[in-house]
Amino acid sequence: MQLIQFSIMGFLIQLLINAAILFLSAYIMPSVKIRNYGTAVVVAFVIGLLNTTIGLILSLPLNLITLGLLSFFVRLLVTAIIIRLVDKFFTGFEVRSFSSAVILAFIMAITGTLLSYA
Q1: In Å, how far are 30, 40, 73, 108 from 25, measured between CA atoms?
Q2: In Å, how far from its chain's centre is CA 85?
Q3: Residue 78, exposed/middle/buried by CB under 10 A (0-12, 13-18, 19+)?
Q4: Is there a contact between 59 and 72 (Cβ–Cβ < 8 Å)?
């Protein structure tokens, strides 16, 4: 029971951190707009959900083609595609270009990696 509580707590903390990353990135990058922190939480949840489902389907063939040697770049590309897809779902979230989505995916990947080692 305690393991389930720990994983749920870890999921919620990661979700709130990703939402904060999205919100702060929107503050820094003029090509990314988020209405409020609540929208950022929902967007972070949907990005995570789509990364887990559609992202796996998209990244598997790309990783096979590159023999897994470019897995970081494949994950970055897939996350950018998903960010652009989520942009179409929400009116309170806007990413104006694919390059902005790649930068946003890169920021999320780096901070997520740094926080997982902390």
Answers
A1: 9, 11, 20, 9
A2: 11
A3: buried
A4: no
Query: What is the arithmetic mean of pLDDT over 72-93?
Result: 88
Q: What per-residue confidence (pLDDT) applies to 81?
A: 92
As a whole number of Å, the end-to-end CA separation of the chain is 25
Return d(Cα 118, Cα 106) in angstroms, integer. Answer: 18
Please tell me the distance from the alpha carbon of residue 32 to that of residue 103, in angstroms, as a whole number.
10
Predicted TM-score (pTM) of the model is: 0.83
pLDDT of res. 86: 92
Describe the chain by its helix, strand, coil percentages, rounded to 5: 80, 5, 15
List beta partners, residue 93.
Answer: 34
Query: What's the pLDDT band for 18 if we cut at 50, 70, 90?
Result: confident
Between CA 42 and CA 64 the distance in angstroms is 32
